[in-house]
Amino acid sequence: MSEHIYKKIELVGSSKIGLEDAIQNAVAKAGETIRNLRWFEVVETRGQIENGQIAYWQVTLKVGFTIEDHPSS
Amino acid sequence: MSEHIYKKIELVGSSKIGLEDAIQNAVAKAGETIRNLRWFEVVETRGQIENGQIAYWQVTLKVGFTIEDHPSS
Amino acid sequence: MSEHIYKKIELVGSSKIGLEDAIQNAVAKAGETIRNLRWFEVVETRGQIENGQIAYWQVTLKVGFTIEDHPSS
Amino acid sequence: MSEHIYKKIELVGSSKIGLEDAIQNAVAKAGETIRNLRWFEVVETRGQIENGQIAYWQVTLKVGFTIEDHPSS
Amino acid sequence: MSEHIYKKIELVGSSKIGLEDAIQNAVAKAGETIRNLRWFEVVETRGQIENGQIAYWQVTLKVGFTIEDHPSS
Amino acid sequence: MSEHIYKKIELVGSSKIGLEDAIQNAVAKAGETIRNLRWFEVVETRGQIENGQIAYWQVTLKVGFTIEDHPSS
Amino acid sequence: MSEHIYKKIELVGSSKIGLEDAIQNAVAKAGETIRNLRWFEVVETRGQIENGQIAYWQVTLKVGFTIEDHPSS
Amino acid sequence: MSEHIYKKIELVGSSKIGLEDAIQNAVAKAGETIRNLRWFEVVETRGQIENGQIAYWQVTLKVGFTIEDHPSS
Amino acid sequence: MSEHIYKKIELVGSSKIGLEDAIQNAVAKAGETIRNLRWFEVVETRGQIENGQIAYWQVTLKVGFTIEDHPSS
Amino acid sequence: MSEHIYKKIELVGSSKIGLEDAIQNAVAKAGETIRNLRWFEVVETRGQIENGQIAYWQVTLKVGFTIEDHPSS
Amino acid sequence: MSEHIYKKIELVGSSKIGLEDAIQNAVAKAGETIRNLRWFEVVETRGQIENGQIAYWQVTLKVGFTIEDHPSS
Amino acid sequence: MSEHIYKKIELVGSSKIGLEDAIQNAVAKAGETIRNLRWFEVVETRGQIENGQIAYWQVTLKVGFTIEDHPSS
Questions:
Q1: Residues L25-51: pLDDT tens digits?
Q2: Which positions in chain E touch C46 (Cβ < 8 Å)?
Q3: For residue K37, which residues of chain I lie inside 8 Å, CB to CB?
Q4: CA E4, CA E2: separation in Å to the nearest integer?
Q5: Is the ipTM of this complex over 0.90?
Q6: What pLDDT is attached to residue G72?
Q7: Strand E37-50 vs strand E53-66: parallel, antiparallel, or unpaired?
Q8: Strand partners, B54
Q9: pTM value?
């Protein structure tokens, strides 16, 4: 680690499978357009219930990445 | 979604297997007597340790459901 | 006020009109089955957006009432 | 402890005597209609002042109990 | 709702009229450049006072939307 | 804004009409004796219920003002 | 209760005897110069230890009172 | 007070008698092996209920002490 | 320390120089009219940006002092 | 449970596999040198991302255990 | 101030020198691509330790700016 | 970083000079007996005031380090 500046964005990942899959879905989506993802922090864990079953697991997380050239993007 | 009123109750689910199973146990128990469960929110995650092993995973969650006729029940 | 015991329940009121109407809808619903409502406390304020417009205002609130005979009801 | 499911309800106990008495009053009231009370957690401590004296001690607490058959009761 | 990924951004809306108008101003502004706005959550409510009168109502809110193609935008 | 020092006091405004009116009542009262009020921050929103109706809306807020000569007043 | 405006001040009471006595000391001190004290809320509970014994119990509390004429006093 | 460094540890004291006794039990236990205890801060107050009675009062507290020679002990 | 009662007031200090200077400015201002200042606690750290530079550092802090004769002053 | 005193320590467990494994790793490590581990509480959930993949899951937890003879160890 | 809408982004600045420098680095980086920066709020203060020395000071802050034309950028 | 387990301890550093010096004093003291210090997190910032001047800056921080062989030490 050096004198880098990082930006954190807030995402909500969802999954029919479970909590870790919901997190991985969000990280994978972020990785499609952001290089240099460095870490995530779980902010909130929820889920949707349909017919008495958990239909979707939803995890709100912050994802941090190194800013290279466009900080507000 | 429409102009419904929802009620949230607080439950603690426990499981020998893991965190998601503890959540599912609590949701299943709630579903035995409440129709129209809609969502859950994780409030706290804990566990009991016995002989150096995690014996029970415990998750405190709030479960929300549509009120149909008796709001305080 | 005397040596009463109070119970607080958590509700989510929704309204197409606004925040105060969402609160009043929740209080009115609670009043249909609970006597002696005494106060409310706002816990969270949210809303649903559809087509760029706020479709529903949603307020999570706790409602307190005097327990007369069945505390867990 | 086993794979039980617990429910937590939120009560406000009041007392002219003191904080512990306010907690005990709330627990006693809950015990009139709920079997299997297991624990309490203090959420907030307040009091009413009349003529410069503390007239009522008020403690908001959550009370947890084992669900046996009707989770939303 | 399906396995979508959502992004939440934080805005501060202001209004001379009131709290709901401040929220609506922020949502309207976000809607100018973001498709698929889904919900908002109020984070903080403040206001500016000038000459003893409330000159501006200010509401900080998070706005969530479905990510379609550029998550960090 | 310059190198001023500000003081914040905590007030609870109440109103039969609504939330914004409760805030305005508190600000107006503060303005009777304090010059240079600058901003307010909402801390808590509650209300009293009488006969199933909201009788009083109560908003706890902090009000900030520039200290000119007596910081503790 | 009517459309009053209340002010809350923050005090720390201390006592060699215990927690309730520390609260009562703070309320009594406030009552020497403020009329119309209405309620208190405990914010924090601490204590000083000397020679392995609790020498002073310290309770930080907010005390609310009706504003009659000088809101910032 | 001088340029000392302090360490804080987190303990849970329990008592059949009450809250202050639970705190004193924890402080006394800490004092058996730590010199220079200086203060405590209450973090959480709970209790166990057996047969509808409070069987144990439990207080989680942080205890601070001056580090003399081994900071991690 | 003895059985004193303390009052805490909330101030915002600002400075063109830095965080510690903003704190010192607030403490110095409080000291102009309050005797027996004892401690401060930082509540929030912010700053104003002008032309891409930090123009003012702003620190919200609580300042505690021993009450001698007028608790609400 | 009796009148025991417990100590809580804060650990961060990490794992390449997932959240529960990270918790179990931390509990197992604590069990190497502490007898009588009783419970854990999750404080924070994070993770490291490398090449767009979650490389390490990290869970900060508090672990409670019965103090037998050396409270500060 | 007028009826503007502001956006807040979350950044982490780091510095070998100290806390204020870490904040200034983050603000400077944001200023490279965002016009109209208005304020910052410190969210968290941390640092990396190497060989027993603080190698990097890290400050997480939110930076607010006036939205002119593209709210999600 | 690998599958290490870390422990976090809570310290309070004090300094006559300033906030960063108080943090450095605490880290230096911890380094006398703990190898492998990795990071710190600021929990609280306070100070003692004497004769209207800041006599001691006090920073409560958590310090994290890699556990090598004795986790509870």
A1: 999 999 999 999 999 999 999 999 999
A2: 39-42
A3: 49, 52
A4: 6
A5: yes
A6: 44
A7: antiparallel
A8: B49
A9: 0.93
Query: What residues of chain G lie within 8 A of the CB of I4, using their CB?
Result: 14
Helix (H, G, I), strand (E, B) or coil at I32: helix
Interface of G with I (CB under 8 A): 9-16, 25-26, 29-30, 32-34, 48, 55-56, 60, 73
- Point out the residue among F18, F48, F49 whose CB comes nearest to the CB of C20: F18
pLDDT, tens digit (0-9, with 9 covering 90-100), for B29-54: 999 999 999 999 999 999 999 999 99
Q: Which helix (H) or strand (E) covers residue A29, if one does?
A: helix A19-33
**Distance, in angstroms, between I39 CA and closest chain G CA?**
12
Sign of CA dihedral C29, C35, C38, C44: negative
The yes-or-no verdict on residue F2 having pLDDT over 90 is no
Cα separation, J61 vs E24, whole angstroms: 40
Residue of G68 and F50 predicted with greater confidence:
F50
DSSP 8-state symbol, E24: H
d(C-alpha L52, C-alpha L55), whole Å: 9
Residue E3 Cα, gap to closest chain K Cα (Å): 22
Q: How many CB pairs under 8 A join F and G?
A: 52
List CB contacts of D73: < 8 A, sequence separation 6 or more: B33, B73, C72, C73
Per-residue pLDDT tens digits for C19-72 = 999 999 999 999 999 999 999 999 999 999 999 999 999 999 999 999 975 444
Average the pLDDT over K12-22 and give the result: 98
- Mean per-residue pLDDT, L16-29: 98
Closest CB to C15 among B3, B9, B72:
B3
Length of chain C: 73
User: Closest to F27 (Cβ–Cβ): which among E19, E45, E49?
Assistant: E49
Percent over 90 (pLDDT), chain L: 88
Instruction: Please write the tens of the pLDDT for every residue from E46-68.
Output: 999 999 999 999 999 999 999 97
| Touching pair H, I by Cβ (3+ pairs < 8 Å) | no
> What DSSP line would sit under F7-53, residue for residue?
EEEEEEEEESS-HHHHHHHHHHHHHHH-S-EEEEEEEEEEEEEETTE
Q: Which of A23, B50, B40 is nearest to J18 (CA)?
A: A23
Give the number of A-K residue pairs with CB atoms closer than 8 Å. Answer: 52
Both tokens of L62, joined, read 């958590």
* E contact set with C (CB within 8 A): 19-20, 23-24, 27-28, 31, 37-42, 63
Q: Give dist(CA H62, CA L43) in Å, integer.
A: 14
Using CA coordinates, name the residue in chain H closest to J67: H29
G19: enclosing H helix or E strand: helix G19-33
DSSP L34: -
Cα J13–chain centre separation:
6
Mutate to test the interface with D, among G6, G9, G19, G20 (most CBs of D within 10 A): G20
- Note whether A49 contacts B28, CB cutoff 8 Å: no
**pLDDT, averaged across chain H:** 92
Distance between CA atoms of I46 and I58, rounded to whole angstroms? 5
